Amino acid sequence: MTSSNRVLPAATGRADKDRFLEADVAHVVHPLTTLAARDPAALLMVTKGQGMSVTDIHGREYLDACAGLWNVNVGYGRKDIAKVAARELEQLGFGMLYIGRSTPPAAMLAARLAEIVPGRMQKFFFGLGGSDGNDTAIKLARRYHYLRDKATKTAIIGRTGSYHGSCYGAMSATGEASFWEGFGPLVPGFSHIDQPTRQAADAADQLEREILRLGPDRVAAFIAEPVSVPCGVVVPPPDYWGQIREICTRFDVLLIADEVITGFGRTGRMFALEHWGVTPDLIVMAKGLTSGYLPLSAVGIDDDVYDVISAAAGPFMHGFTAGGHPACCAVALRNIEILEEEGLVANARTVGDYLLSSLSPLIDDGLASDVRALGLMAAVDFARHPENVSRFDDTSVGKAIEHKMREEGILVRAFGDTVAIAPPLIVTRRHVDHIVGSMRRVATAVRNVPAATASARN
Ligand SMILES: Cc1ncc(COP(=O)(O)O)c(C=O)c1O
Predict the structure, then answer these.
(1) pLDDT tens, 166-182?
(2) Is 331:295 a contact under the CB 8 Å cutoff?
């Protein structure tokens, strides 16, 4: 490393900032960013975070109303989490779970997860992120059937509009074509049914029909997020998950709950499936497991499924070098303690209710066409008024609102004309008033802006 590319903690001078920004534009490949049309001026480079907020390289503070990527559940700047990580790294730079080795943090985290996940689950497999967690769950489902002499049961049914990650298995389970384009062929054996939107009253029945279409002796698992985010925070009807559980059990199909976003309090329960009293066969956790402080995923395995997997002769041939790194597991343990000590799951429930009731008037006032939320996962569909229909052809109303709220110092995330809000679970009513006030102001301004100037940067 030369002195010119070193990142010094005290580096705040103008020349340093320019160097960092130029290096990013010159060398970093950004996910979910239009690489051909990158606007260097739109680059948001953050350098620190505290509580609900992050600060960019120019010293500008933003209220992070999406908690990073729906993951910074306990908020930014937790010194005790940083200390736990530093202590582990000083003590043991690396420790693995391969070939029968272990570390105390990995063992204690697995034991802690066994106490809090829904269902009868004593065993946990550690990886690095939600994508590999879902790949692990998909592989476990196929191997479970294989070991029961049902090797034809390999098909995985997902849902249109769901996101499960960027690795090949998770990408194939993802039900959004833009994630597949140019990356094919996908992993064989994946198909998709509809989301349980208000328009799809038969969404659970569709699972049964799809199993029958494929043949029950061919289907390994159904994978879904309890509440799907990218298609606009689809909160299912009350009987959906119970029906899904019953259909999976009846056809000997494993139920994989992707709780990567919904886990660890986001919806006002520790895990979202608790809202409906449903227990999955495999549960995938990441994001809120460490509140994003370090990368980690965990897959919980139902005891009966584990009995089958563990009865096989020979080693379990699946793993990730850094999966269950001791520093990441120690951070997860402290993170779970904080969620419990500070009552953050209950806070997500009460402030979540307040968020929903604060957003709903946007519909009455003609600014939004629909609002949905469960705990601190909310989405607002912005109405396209007849006179505005063609105005946002090059972008979306949602992007315009995301962009203008950022100018007001608030970070939200747009999916088409829908804008998502998912703040850290430490959020207060005062923050909600601030976020919704900005959204209302901006939505009004975007509606009134002359057509020629209505555009937003990527
Ligand atoms: C529901 C869900 N599953 C899986 C993933 C993939 O997780 P990761 O980005 O950690 O691989 C995400 C990421 O946003 C997600 O939202």
Answers:
(1) 999 999 999 999 999 99
(2) no
| pLDDT at position 451 | 46
Phi–psi pair at 88, nearest 5 degrees: -65, -40
Provide the H-helix boundaries in 6-78. 14-27, 67-70
Question: Is any atom of ligand 1 closer than 6 Å to the C-beta of 292?
Answer: no
Residue of 326, 300, 306, 297 whose CA lies nearest to 132: 297
How far apart, in whole angstroms, are the C-alpha atoms of residue 324 and residue 136? 14
What's the gap in Å between 71 CA and the centre of ligand 1? Answer: 10
Could you tell me if 223 and 258 are in contact, meaning their C-beta atoms sit under 8 angstroms apart?
Answer: yes
179 lines ligand 1 (CB under 6 A): no
Measured from the Cα of 167, ligand 1's closest atom is 11
Between CA 406 and CA 408 the distance in angstroms is 5
pLDDT higher than threshold 70 for residue 259? yes
Cα–Cα dist 167/400, whole Å: 30
Q: Whose CA is nearest to atom 13 of ligand 1?
A: 165
Q: Is pTM, for the whole model, over 0.85? A: yes
DSSP state of 228: B
Between β-strands 297-302 and 410-411, what pairing exists: parallel, antiparallel or unpaired?
A: unpaired
CA–CA distance, 53 with 438 (Å, rounded to integer)? 16
* CA 259 to ligand 1 centroid distance, Å: 9
Report pLDDT for 198.
83
Confidence of residue 8 (pLDDT cuts 50, 70, 90): low
φ, ψ at 396 (rounded to 5°): -145, 160
Query: Are the CB atoms for 191 and 210 separated by under 8 Å?
Result: yes
What does the pLDDT read at residue 282?
Answer: 98
User: Whose CA is closest to 292, among 404, 421, 129?
Assistant: 129
| 31 token code pair | 């996910």
Which of ligand 1's atoms lies nearest the C-alpha of 287? 10
CA of 73 relative to ligand 1 center, distance in Å: 15
Residues in the chain: 458
- Looking at residue 117, the DSSP 8-state letter turns out to be S
Q: Find out whether the beta carbon of 165 lies less than 6 Å from any atom of ligand 1.
A: yes
Q: How far is the C-alpha of 168 from the C-alpha of 410, rounded, in Å?
A: 34
- The whole-angstrom separation of Cα 403 and Cα 398 is 9
| Alpha carbons 201 and 239: distance in angstroms, whole number | 11
- In angstroms, the CA 88 to CA 331 distance is 9
Question: Which pairs count as long-range contacts for 352-355, CB under 8 Å and 24+ apart, including other chains?
Answer: 352/267, 352/268, 352/376, 352/377, 352/378, 354/429, 354/432, 355/421, 355/432, 355/436
Residue 217: count of CB within 10 angstroms of its CB: 12
